[in-house]
Design a protein that fits this description.
Chain B: This is Vitamin B12 dependent methionine synthase activation subunit. The complex is a heterodimer of chains A (798) and B (218). Chain A is α/β, with parallel strands linked by helices and 798 residues long. Among the domains of chain A are: 13-226, TIM Barrel (Alpha-Beta Barrel); 584-668, Orthogonal Bundle (Methyltransferase, Methionine Synthase (B12-binding Domains), Chain A, domain 1); 677-796, Cobalamin-binding domain (Rossmann fold). Chain A is 47% helix and 14% strand. An 8-stranded parallel sheet of chain A has the order 1-10-7-6-5-4-3-2. Chain A has an 8-stranded parallel barrel with strand order 13-14-15-16-17-18-19-20, surrounded by 7 helices. In chain A, strands 22-21-23-24-25 form a 5-stranded parallel sheet, with helices on both faces. In chain A, strand 5 (171-175), helix 8 (189-198) and strand 6 form a beta-alpha-beta unit. In chain A, helix 4 packs across helix 5 and helix 9 packs parallel to helix 10. Chain B is 41% helix and 20% strand. The relative contact order of chain B is 0.19. Chain B is globular and about 50 Å long. In chain B, helix 2 (21-37) packs across helix 5. Chain B contains 7 helices and 8 strands. In chain B, strands 3-2-1-4-8-5 form a 6-stranded antiparallel sheet, with helices on both faces. Chain B has a two-stranded antiparallel ribbon with strand order 6-7. The chains are: A alpha/beta (798), B alpha+beta (218). Chains A and B meet through helix 13, helix 26, helix 27 and helix 29 of A and helix 2, strand 1, helix 4, helix 5 and helix 6 of B.
Chain lengths: 798, 218
């Protein structure tokens, strides 16, 4: 088994394949995998040369062999993979090896597609594509799977899961970092390391993109964070264009020379990528063979990650934003019930802006499908924030669904000392990775003493070890009880916190605000307790980052404890902080009318003036006397070409601010808010541009329509289903390109058939009246205001 | 006012109209945010070129049927295929801004387009400088989707550039580029310098477009 040798002795991969095939006549753009069939001898010969140069691990020519990239009618994917693996074995038979064991690696490269939500490839679809290949590879007799040249952590996760779930083969992974140490999709070394260690691959490292010398600093960074055996496979330098050809100009000797240094630094498996040849590999092995590799050093980082960055606990105290949670929040509950994702996403954005490092995500409500909602919220949050997420649920199915599709290594909230809880949660951690919060309570409840809580923490750590979950991936929550019912609650919690950190050496979290439950002016107690907890070793507080009191404690603590270099963050936050002054425009024109504020697009002023006005005027009067006339005025200006799109939208945002004040007042007074007519908006299937649709949405909402926003890339079936279910009379569809107008046409066809009374308005860059007529739309909106006028005419009789 | 700001204003549909200060402030904020978010990357490769007929061309091994591209490339001896992207972080920034402030999102979108165009111009100037040493002159770049150059050529073009791997530029099943703020183009290289080339937006036949450059004042 290769795993018996991995990390104990230096192992050698082969070098470039594509560049050698090109030298034999492979054309740019031609799929190299077809050469397994058309030029078998050429492929076998290249493998043989690498084996004779000394390579232990030889990659089958299957880099692009997946259903998404490989479309060749002449042969099946299964044949390609089987034949390619066979070629390596044949080469091993032919080569002079002196009895050396040669390992055949199934080579897995990227699909060439970008995954959702940034692209159009579904995570599970990517998984299926990889699953197919790894199964063929194992059947054909591959000894290991080498996933390489990955530049997107999400695709990487799909590939690793496919390999781990469908085969028993060792999994080696390398990604393509640039000179700044980032993947193309933005992940840095700690983020990639956290993900791969969490998924328990056997070895990780770097290939392609750079020459050996440029890889040195990246290798150092990987060695700082990773406990795994490291693979390094550089190109023969950076590609250069000479006479229309891509060339790599690092010579075999120079390559070999730098590879020595790479091994001395700590690489355990080395080889080459683009531009390297059997000569490079031969020279490399000759120079490196005698070098003793560095023993593996376990690293103790407690890391969670997103697609772009990792957060390490232990450097100061981190903030876990608690606001994505329906508990005690009426508006949030309503948003969940109404499937108002935007509201939930905005909660995430606000917390990031206020300083959160990690976002807790809890979407549990008795009457919603928590698993589906969790999956959706986790996915969408990752399209607007790069903060790592904390999956917070008691529903094991929702937890697994979220961990599976999460792009990174998540924080998991939580497991307790109850056997049942540990039996359910630890297998998920074992499979998907993650850092789990262990609550110090068990079948008997929460111990009253610090001793009791420390003991449960120990039990959790011991039970986790049975699953191979290391101490660094557990953080303990010693729980806090409100001092209004437990007078000694704070003292016990602080003592337990300190002991867990010092005696057990694990990191800690706390839901800080529980401490003040039932007391007046809770922020006063919360902030003081938060400071005390940080002083006693709190690695991360689960708090509301919009609470000024809490953030003051946070910044002050870090400044005081020399955890904020030169008080930089403290100063950035509080220097020049004066009592909130009225905005410049507000001060000059305290007489400013609400309609003026809206027409000028002054959001803050509109908000403030509405608050003032509402003291003396009824909300509906404010709407009729100020808001509507102002919006009409701006709308007319837009139509006649004196107001332009940004201004129109600034006014819309200002009006929205005013409306939200009035909505709260109406809701608080218990009066029924006017029932609004619903309009469905969607960007059609295949289309991923939604800015036009979003513009229409903002405007329609201003004109008192309720928008059911189905998002982008929406299948016709979902639109029809929503229309029928919600009894919708108007649908707005958006498409950007000629290639997607086809699905607009199909959507209209299905709508006309199943909901003939529903009208369809369309808009988008390539459309015009003629085109709209041709595909059967009822209305073509040449700009956003036209859509509003049409909706008013149709639904409000205006 | 700098060129990028002017371009952003044009994309926002202002034509020759004066721009209000609030929008100008949003524009400068957007450029600042884009500076952090944009991860500009580009790739080019040079291919053989053959003009079989006015509207039939061969780039490397790929045959293209297009009259407008044929016109653009007439007399060229080689072809540069070019790809550039601002990366996924810009898409995320636009999505994020759409949730909090639609006016800012629209301005950001326009500014990102301006940043991308300027970046492409810079890249093209650099390619022109390198090929200039071999006595070659570049034509204006021409992208799939311009004129009758079918958008479907995005696929072979991106494959020939291997741009998923090299710069992280991919395409959806509907031929949309992801990340969305990206460009692919064909740039002709010829031994003779031709001036008076119309390029970019002026090539387009849609003369009444509100986004058109140098539109006559109405």
């Amino acid at each position: 088994m290769i795993l018996d040798r991995l990390g104990k002795e230096l192992l050698f991969f082969d070098g470039g394949m594509g560049t050698l095939l090109q030298a034999e006549g492979l054309k740019p753009g031609e799929l190299p995998e077809t050469w397994n069939m058309t030029h078998p001898e050429t492929v076998i010969e290249i493998h043989r040369k690498y084996i004779e140069a000394g390579s232990d691990i030889v990659l089958a020519n299957t880099f692009g062999a997946n259903a998404l990239k490989f479309h060749d009618k002449s042969c099946s994917l299964k044949d390609i993979v089987t034949v390619a693996v066979g070629h390596v074995k044949e080469a091993a038979r032919r080569a002079e090896t002196n009895g050396r064991r040669i390992y055949t690696a199934l080579d897995i490269g990227p699909t060439g597609k970008l995954l959702k939500p940034m692209g159009d490839l579904d995570f599970e679809e990517a998984y299926q594509a990889f699953r197919e290949v790894v199964k063929y590879g194992e059947e054909a007799g591959a000894d290991l799977i080498h996933i390489e040249t990955m530049s997107d952590t999400y695709e990487l996760k799909a590939a690793v899961l496919a390999a781990k779930e469908n085969t028993d083969l060792p999994v080696f992974v390398t990604t393509i970092f640039d000179e700044r140490g980032k993947l193309l999709t933005g992940a840095d070394v700690p983020a990639v390391t956290a993900l791969l260690e969490g998924l328990r691959v056997d070895a990780m490292g770097i290939n392609c993109g750079l020459g050996p010398r440029q890889m040195l600093p990246i290798l150092e960074e990987i060695l700082k964070y990773s406990s795994l055996p490291i693979i390094v496979k550089p190109n023969a330098g950076l590609p250069k264009q000479v006479d229309g050809e891509t060339v790599y100009d690092v010579s075999p000797e120079e390559f070999a020379f730098v590879m020595q240094e790479i091994v001395r630094k700590g690489a355990a498996v080395i080889g080459g990528c683009c531009g390297t040849t059997p000569e490079h590999i031969h020279a490399m092995i000759k120079l490196c063979r005698g070098i003793k590799i560095k023993p593996l050093e376990p690293k103790e980082w407690t890391m969670v990650s997103s697609y772009g960055q990792a957060v390490c606990l232990g450097e100061g105290s981190k903030i876990i934003g608690e606001r994505i949670n329906p508990t005690g929040k009426k508006k949030f509950k309503q948003a969940l019930k109404e499937h108002d994702l935007d509201y939930i996403l905005r909660e995430g954005i606000t917390q990031q802006d206020k300083g959160a490092h990690i976002l807790d995500v809890n979407v549990g409500l008795p009457d919603i499908d928590e698993t589906a909602m969790m999956r959706e919220v986790v996915t969408e949050l990752q399209s607007v924030t790069n903060l790592p997420l904390q999956i917070d649920t008691v529903d094991v199915n929702a937890m697994e669904a979220a961990l599976r599709i999460y792009n990174g290594k998540a924080m998991v909230n939580s497991v307790s000392g109850k056997q049942e809880s540990m039996d359910a949660v630890f297998p998920l951690l074992q499979k998907y990775g993650g850092v789990v919060i262990g609550l110090t309570l068990d079948e008997k409840g929460i111990p009253e003493t610090a001793d009791g809580r420390v003991k449960i923490a120990e039990q959790i750590i011991a039970e986790a070890a049975k699953y191979g979950i290391q101490k660094k991936d557990i953080v303990i929550d010693v729980l806090c009880m409100t001092i209004s019912s437990e007078p000694d609650g704070a003292r016990v919690t602080l003592e337990a916190l300190k002991r867990v950190r010092e005696e057990l050496g694990v990191h800690t979290v706390l839901g800080v605000s529980n401490i003040s439950f039932g007391l007046p002016s809770r922020p006063v107690i919360n902030a003081a307790f938060y400071t005390m907890a940080m002083q006693n070793g709190l690695s991360a507080g689960i708090i509301n980052p919009s609470s000024e009191e809490m953030m003051k404690s946070y910044y002050a603590f870090h400044a005081l404890m020399n955890l904020d270099q030169n008080c930089e963050h403290y100063i950035a936050q509080y220097a020049g902080a004066a009592p909130a002054a009225p905005s410049a425009t507000g001060a000059a024109g305290s007489q400013m009318q609400l309609d003026t504020a809206i027409e000028k697009g002054l959001k803050e002023d509109a908000h403030r003036i509405t608050m003032e006005l509402a003291k003396t005027k009824a909300p509906l009067d404010i709407i009729n006397e100020y808001l509507i006339p102002a919006l009409d005025h701006v709308g007319k200006g837009f139509e006649t070409g004196t107001v332009f799109l940004p201004q129109l939208l600034m006014s819309a945002e200002a009006a929205k601010a005013a409306f939200s004040v009035l909505k709260d007042i109406l809701a608080a007074s218990g009066s029924e808010v006017e029932k609004k007519e619903k309009v469905v908006l969607a960007t059609v299937k295949g289309d991923i541009h939604d800015i036009g649709k979003n513009i229409v949405k903002v405007l329609l909402e201003n004109y008192s329509f309720e928008v059911v926003d189905l998002g982008k890339d929406v299948p016709p079936e979902l639109i029809v289903e929503t229309v029928l279910k919600e009894n919708i009379r108007l649908v707005g569809l958006s498409a950007l390109m000629t290639t997607t107008v086809v699905s607009m046409e199909e959507t209209i066809r299905q709508l006309k058939k199943q909901a003939p009374d529903c009208k369809v308005m369309v808009g988008g860059a390539v459309l015009n009246q003629e085109y709209a007529d041709m595909i059967g739309a009822d209305f073509y909106g040449k700009d956003a205001m036209q859509s509003v006028y049409y909706a008013q005419k149709l639904l409000q009789g205006k | 006012m700098d060129q990028m700001t002017k371009e952003a204003i044009r994309y926002l549909g202002y034509g020759k109209h004066a721009v209000d200060e609030k929008t100008l402030a949003l524009i400068s904020d957007s450029f600042r945010n884009l500076e952090d978010a944009a991860d500009k990357r580009s790739i080019y490769r040079i291919f053989d070129f053959q003009q079989i007929a006015d509207d039939r061309l061969k780039i490397g091994e790929t045959e293209v049927q297009s009259k407008s591209l044929g016109r653009n490339l007439r007399g060229c001896s080689g072809i540069v295929l070019f790809g550039a992207t601002l990366g996924t972080a810009v898409d995320r920034l636009i999505t994020r801004t759409s949730l909090t402030d639609m006016a800012a999102a629209v301005v950001l979108q326009a500014c990102a387009a301006a940043v991308l165009e300027e970046y492409c111009d810079e890249c093209q100037a650099e390619i022109g400088r390198i090929l200039g040493q071999e006595g070659l002159y570049l034509r204006p770049r021409f992208s799939p989707g311009y004129g009758d150059f079918d958008i479907c050529f995005q696929e072979p073009l991106m494959r020939m550039l291997d741009c998923a791997k090299t710069i992280g530029l991919t395409m959806t099943d509907s031929y949309m580029m992801t990340p969305t703020k990206s460009v692919t183009a064909v740039i002709g290289a010829s031994k003779t310098k031709e001036n008076c080339h119309t390029k970019g937006c002026e090539v387009c036949d849609k003369k009444d477009c509100i986004y058109r450059r140098n539109v006559p004042v109405t």
